[in-house]
Amino acid sequence: xxxxxxxxxxxxxxxxxxxxxxxxxxxxxxxxxxxxxxxxxxxxxxxxxxxxxxxxxxxxxxxxxxxxxxxxxxxxxxxxxxxxxxxxxxxxxxxxxxxxxxxxxxxxxxxxxxxxxxxxxxxxxxxxxxxxxxxxxxxxxxxxxxxxxxxxxxxxxxxxxxxxxxxxxxxxxxxxxxxxxxxxxxxxxxxxxxxxxxxxxxxxxxx
Length: 207
Fold this sequence. Notes:
Blueprint lengths: L1 E4 L5 E4 L2 H30 L7 E5 L1 H13 L5 E5 L6 H11 L6 E5 L2 E4 L2 E4 H6 L6 E5 L6 E5 L3 E10 L4 E12 L2 H25 L1
Parallel strand pairs: 4-5, 5-8
Antiparallel strand pairs: 1-2, 3-11, 4-9, 6-7, 9-10, 10-11
Helix pairs in contact: 2-3
């Protein structure tokens, strides 16, 4: 490492490597700091425009309203696991199902009954009485689970606390999780269809 002094005659000075290293290190640090500031500006300018594909929904009313919104957006399919219902939810879902085009299949895996605030609700009977020709409902033991999957692209799961020996639903504790990660939704949808068809085929063989 050499510096040149432009005099007559020219003078050459040997610079120790450690000084050159220190100087280049300082230049690199300054460059990195400048880049970090620019990235921070870009991040702060755009973060408000970015929406995460997962949302939390609170209160029974908001959860039911969100489920109905999702059902109404269906273009290919609605698949559900129903281990419990919130108060008024079954009626709201059936009404939304009736408004869908009959070409959209609705498949449901459900537990026969649940309790809401200590009162018994017959889940399967309620949906069967709707007499929708595009809806299939199969009984299975999936207590404590409720999931809606739309078109394999959107998933809504309700989480709730239970109480007592009959595991009665406490609606005031309900929380909904809306998920639009397509890979996750697709995976849940495929698993649902595999389970649904497996149970359906088993029932056919048993008849």
